[in-house]
Amino acid sequence: MDVSCPELIARLDRSVEAGSFDAITALVKADLEQLLARGAVALPDHFRRARPDTYARRLLHRDPAGRYTAIVMTWGPGQGTPVHDHGGLWCVEGVVEGQIAVTQYDVAPVGGGQYAVAERDTLLAGVGTAGRLIPPTDYHVIVNALSDRPSLTLHVYGGDLCECRVFMPQPDGRYTAQVRALSYHD
Questions:
Q1: Quick check: 70 and 60 in contact, CB under 8 A?
Q2: In terms of Cα–Cα distance, which of 93, 95, 87, 91 is closest to 179?
Q3: Is residue 130 within 8 Å of 175, Cβ to Cβ?
Q4: Distance between CA atoms of 105 and 120, rounded to whole angstroms?
Q5: Domain 6-181, what fold?
Q6: Residue 130: strand pairing partners
Q7: Among 146, 139, 10, 140, residue whose Cα is nearest residue 68
Q8: Residue 71 in contact with residue 169, Cβ under 8 Å?
Q9: pLDDT tens digits along 72-96
Q10: pLDDT value at position 4?
Q11: Whether 168 contacts 179, CB under 8 Å
Q12: Using one digit for the tens of pLDDT, what is the confidence trace for 33-66?
């Protein structure tokens, strides 16, 4: 589903030609910060509808050449993710509306299919703020920091993110990884 965001699409098409993941994500981050800060990404109302059971993941644009996808996520009050990765893809995430809390983690295998997961830092991100994640240091949690209304984020992935690993806490303090299939919501 393509929504009328021609400036966003033109900038992303240019930025993904930059070469390295570092160069691409730096340009995409700058693009999102500029466009989101001035409200230049117009989204139809259905992108703003929160789901009662989980955050909503909605396709905004899929590059015909497969170089990237742009996804809008709608977070109801208090909704968030478990610790997760991005399936080996680079990612740039920006805040369209509201405020989110992003906590970054270090994840390391400890044997027997278990992982040590350690919190690094948390930041509050508001409208026009963007961050970039490049594997293998892309582990984080996102939570809507607002208790009274939804928040919207725009995620640009270096491909089509169909699955990721989520890390679930165990009683002994370690974590196990599960592959989670990802889908889009209406």
A1: yes
A2: 87
A3: no
A4: 5
A5: Jelly Rolls (2.60.120)
A6: 94
A7: 10
A8: no
A9: 999 999 999 999 999 999 999 999 9
A10: 63
A11: no
A12: 999 999 999 898 999 999 999 999 999 999 999 9
CA distance 10 to 24: 14
Ramachandran angles phi, psi of 129, nearest 5°: -90, 140
Q: Is 178 helix (H, G, I), strand (E, B) or coil?
A: strand
Please tell me the number of Cα atoms within 13 Å of 51 on its side-chain side: 12
φ/ψ of residue 43, rounded to 5: -115, 135
Tell me the C-alpha to C-alpha distance, in Å, between residue 174 and each of 75, 95, 166, 171, 178. 27, 31, 13, 7, 13
Per-residue pLDDT tens over the stretch 9-20: 999 999 999 989
pTM: 0.93
Assigned token pair, 73: 């996520």
